[in-house]
Design a protein that fits this description.
6-stranded mixed β-sheet, 5-stranded mixed β-sheet, globular, binds ligand DPM, transferase, porphyrin biosynthesis
Amino acid sequence: MSGDTSSQDGNGKVTRVIRIGTRKSQLARIQTDSVAEQLKGLYPDVRLEIIGMTTTGDKILDTALSKVNPFIKCIMVDLVVHSLKDLPTALPPGFTIGAVLKRENPHDAVVLHPRNLGKSLNSLPDKSVIGTSSLRRAAQLKKRFPHLEFKDIRGNLNTRLKKLDEKDDFAAIILAAAGLSRMGWESRVGQILDPEDCLYAVGQGALAIEVRARDKDIVEMVSVLHDPETVLRCIAERAFLRQLEGGCSVPVAVHTEVKECQLYLTGAVFSLDGSNSLKDTMQTSVASDSERSQRVGVTANNVPGPAQDAAEKLGLDMANLLLSKGAKEILTVARQLNDAR
Ligand code: DPM
């Protein structure tokens, strides 16, 4: 082991050092810290270093994961924690998702301006302005709540909450329940949107650990954090998105469930105003009994391979079903309209 990935204590004991890269937003730090805590509990002898990246954007983190720093001659970081929903279905070559952690509440939540406390999307007055930059949320909610108006709101969670509370621009904003709870802001949740109101994004509510595929020891180390049910659901969801050629900002939504060894996937695509949509539900058996190691970028050697294959096939079949009904046209128009904004 090189001196860069290990250190010696006073008694000459060699300690493995694992470097975790993180963005600097509060949510990114909270997510990274929670994974570091779990790794520390599992591997008390490993020394974990959290390295804050001054730059923003996942490309930079991938760079940190791939590059050897010429000055200190070591690999800059060994793993990066992401919200799975922000990870593309095709990772750059050489990378893999080594762990998908147990999913938290995957649904979307309504955060109300304090003046609207006690209200819901249904009971907000006509022409109330709802903040979201998610095409997926806007498309579904425009259709379901035609009395409301939708406007973009950008920035990290702290910025958005500030924009909501300190100005009069928005009656409410829509955020993922999982992000709110990680921030400790559960008390701000005015309403959780059920699947009839709003299907969630692919991977929403699950954390993923990105690693270098060739780092077998790191892959093995983080793999114990895989939650088998979440892995199967998210493989199906990501396969569905990949087959639709949807990035992370297309009006595509899902709902998944595992019940009695059956994996259920509801997949949907929407026009930007929600007036045109396709939605269907399919299921597959994921009963357990592995040759391929990665599926839609996920490596989960402790989850039965055939079940992962079945999950992936379910996503593919669902995408093909919707494509046969015209999903491509809906998404192409949505993309073009969005690009033109
Ligand atoms: C992606 C979307 C959004 C994020 C699009 C979508 C929401 C953007 C917006 C792909 N990433 O959901 O349809 O509201 O304008 C993001 C959040 C989290 C991860 C915040 C949020 C935390 C929750 C999680 C932003 N990425 O969605 O409220 O881990 O799933």
